[in-house]
Amino acid sequence: MSNVLSGIGGAVGLGRPIPRALPASGVMLAREGRVELFGRREHGLRADSAKSPAAAQDKPTVFVVDDDLSVRESLELLFGFEGWRTELFASAQEFLARPRSQTPSCLVLDVSLPDLNGLDLQKLVADRVDMPVIFITGHGDVPLAVRAMKAGAVEFLTKPFDGEVMLGAVREAVERSRAALGREAEVRTLRGRYESLTAREREVMTLVAAGLLNKQVAFKLGISEITVKAHRGRVMQKMEADSLADLVKAAERLRLAPEEVLLSQVA
Description:
Radius of gyration: 25 Å
Strand order of the largest sheet: 4-3-5-6-7
Number of domains: 2
CATH architecture of the largest domain: 3-Layer(aba) Sandwich
Structural class: alpha/beta
Helix content: 40-55%
CATH class of the largest domain: Alpha Beta
CATH topology of the largest domain: Rossmann fold
Distance between the termini: 51 Å
Order of helices and strands: EEHEHEHEHEHEHHHHHH
CATH superfamily of the largest domain: Response regulator
């Protein structure tokens, strides 16, 4: 856990104005008692500015849950310069009321919140594998960091942290999110194909994917081997499987019932 508590004492601070100058890698502006942090970037030079409308719809969203307004606004500026959408929430309950996102996303989450703490919120959204969590906290606590990382957090940063460290963590989280969304889309496609199968074809698919030969499938289901071959051919066609290996992979992705469960159903 080399990155745990990374950025302690870093150049970029959150939640309070810091008058000292920063090195060339970062810029901090204090306005009306609020800290704004972001790396030095030029407007109009972003590569994604030329992307198509379809690509714009795939723009990542960074959810920020922190009860400190200055932190939320500073992170909004930081992420805005990267071209990411940012949605801000002052509490866990506010965030939970928001519908689930269908685009690449991640959650930047403060450990200490007024209602439900960050670790508890992490548990509640554990099923959202397409929304990795990055923790931030004002107090370095190794046991908390260990718990968060074991539960799947991408990073655990202690304020003040370096803006580039945060951006790197979000980039990693967004890539994880894209990969998870891609896997979910593949499963939805496979599920649609599977639902197009007849009940008998599903039985044949499960048994064939479990490794049974045609004659064994015929014996288990009480049908002829020729009929099994016909069902198997239609299964391969409907599932768009070019080989038995493809069919086995599809069955695994769909988490079909193992052979013994199916056999108990058709006995």
